[in-house]
Amino acid sequence: MGRRADVAVLTVGAAIITLILGVALQRNLRGASPSTVRVLTYHNDVARTGQNLDEKILTLKNVTAASFGKVGYLNTDGLVDAEPLYVSNLAIGGNPHNVVFVATEHDSVYAFDADTLTQLWNVTVLGANESPSDDRNCAQVSPEIGITSTPVISLSGDRGLMYVVAMSKDRSGNYFQRLHALDITSGAEISGSPTTIEASYPNLQGRTTFDPKQYKERASLLLAGGIVYTSWASHCDNGDYTGWVIGYDAATLKPATVLDLTPNGNDGAIWMSGAGPAADPDGNIYLLDANGTFDKSFDSSGFPIHGDFGNAFLKLSIRDGNLRVADYFNMHNTGNESGHDQDLGSGGALVLPDFQDASGKTWQLAVGAGKDRRIYVVNRNDMGKFNPKKDTGIYQEIEHALTGPVFSMPAYFNNTVYFGAVNDTLKAFSITNAKLVPEPTSMSSAHYAYPGTTPSISANGYSDAIVWAVESRGSDAGILHAYDATNLTKELYNSGRTRGRDAFGDNKFITPMIANGRVFVGTLTGVMVFGLLP
């Protein structure tokens, strides 16, 4: 018995030493200076590029099955649909930590030390005698709806706030949508938080009113111009709903602006498979609207006369304090697409950097795709509006580039756009002379079933660029892939080949987040953490 006890002590001691060495290795690889890596919003930035260009630990050489894999798991009290966020070198309790933030469908928010995986704080945003919402007879988010969308963090000096939208219900069957502002060092609500989300908007019958039980906040939050933008999806296609965008002052949480994209029609939800509305450097907002009413009568500027913009690629802007549609594109067969559930709303919009064509002219572009399997590239200064016979006004439209519909978000890196459509390979499309080349420059060998995949990219500047993608296969069958960003035929890592060590139960619409040598993947009960093995 004594010998066995000694062996047990030595085994535990060795495990502790291994953990310590692993943490020390991670910190040593980061160098002596404190990290400045931050992931404060969905897909890394408001353009929604999905790229972290400050990844100095993970490289093309060390991301292999032998040296990379599962290093830990962050346990939570519910489903993690939101992308984790990250702030490095954050002072909590008087000590600096690299912190990963996680939100759950049980209406909880967590902060973990990203190196040791120790929980730093955990709060619930439920009101007294409340619970998360039921699934509202829709299996899209089930069995409960709490925090579905990716929050957003604002950092100003020593103060950091996380904005979170949470759905709940009370014992009397009343439903609530609330916007919370949490101090990221403690999880405490700031003064004036939370605020109950309420809105109305003028229409031909008088006004239409936002009904909290009819909607869920599926698309990620956007912070732009001092306003936190929320955008709202239906529960499946159930009930009477329209397309709401509601903004709140980030400093006070007071209502700032509201827009209904189908005020005199129906449907037109905003969900984009969890992607967030994107913003350009001037603060204009871009999104893809789902199937819904699109007016066929137009004013002199080519805008729908009743303000109904269902199934459109939209540009929104603030004028005189009011949010409005500044420009749009809608395809010539939009009514047929909406009627057959072939709309744009399943995909996310990506704002591209400026490009010059062969003549030296500069173009400001955005790209997106939805269920109709076409890639749409719009000129952000003239999106093309609507032509009932043919899509003549759009900057570029690419057919047959994608095998299946898009229920995901593209990523951008170094003159290349990456798409992961349903029942398709992950594809890289290069940009030449300010246009997407219709044939992919490379593609993965793996095919991605529903819902496809949203890629993320890590790189050290423009070196050691890796494309990360989650393949959804259900409980204990998710796969994390890593590819050479310059050639997707070169797969660096595949967790399916090390399933005994690296298995995890995945969700649909999951976006991997990469920071400081770690890859964080939301799962059914927490967050899987991948990194260099000790």
Could you please describe the fold and organization of this structure?
The protein has 534 residues and is mostly beta strands. The protein has a single domain, classed as Methanol Dehydrogenase, Chain A (8 Propeller), CATH 2.140.10.10. 7% of the residues lie in helices and 41% in strands. The chain is built from three helices and 44 strands. Strands 8, 9, 10, 11, 12 and 13 form a six-stranded antiparallel beta sheet that branches. A five-stranded antiparallel beta sheet has the order 1-4-5-6-7, with no helix packed on it. A five-stranded mixed beta sheet has the order 2-38-39-40-41, with no helix packed on it. The radius of gyration is 23 Å and the shape is globular.
In short:
With 534 residues, the protein is mainly beta. Helices cover 7% and strands 41% of the residues. It has a single domain (26-532), classed as Methanol Dehydrogenase, Chain A (8 Propeller), CATH 2.140.10.
Which properties best describe this structure?
six-stranded antiparallel β-sheet; single chain; disordered N terminus; Methanol Dehydrogenase, Chain A; five-stranded antiparallel β-sheet; 534 residues; mainly beta
Gross geometry: globular
| Low-pLDDT windows of residues | 1-32
Q: How many domains in all?
A: 1
According to CATH, the fold-level topology is Methanol Dehydrogenase, Chain A
Fraction of residues in helix = under 10%
- Mean pLDDT, to the nearest integer, reads 93
Please give the count of helices: 3
CATH superfamily: Quinoprotein alcohol dehydrogenase-like superfamily
**Regarding CATH, which class?**
Mainly Beta
Return Rg in Å.
Answer: 23 Å
Number-wise, the strands total 44
